[in-house]
Specification:
Elements (H helix, E strand, L loop, with lengths): L3 H14 L4 H9 L1 H15 L6 H15 L2 H13 L4 H15 L1 H14 L2
Amino acid sequence: MVKKETEKELKELEKKIGKVPKFFKELTLKEPKMYELVMKMEGHVWDDGALTRKTKKLIAIAIAAALRDQHAVHAQMAGAKNLGITKAEVEEALRVTFLLSGMPAYVYGKAQLDEVMP
């Protein structure tokens, strides 16, 4: 059973980045020290700095599409919706993916986009 404090942290993380992967939730029980370290890294990476959280999310979508990682693309796009990112913004990020990673990555990302943001 996940502690209430940990549940609260995971809900806050979900607000920031979107869907939290199952394996990450399992870390809270199986590897609590690793979970704590990952949470610190997550906060450092996703907090606004020189780049906004929205910009970072678009970068994450582009990378996930380039890697053709279905779970990551879907999770990142779900998180994008939570951050108010528009379909047009995601499409533009995917065009950069096309330029640097080729047509298959672009097509893969677009198919996921149309599923998550119809």
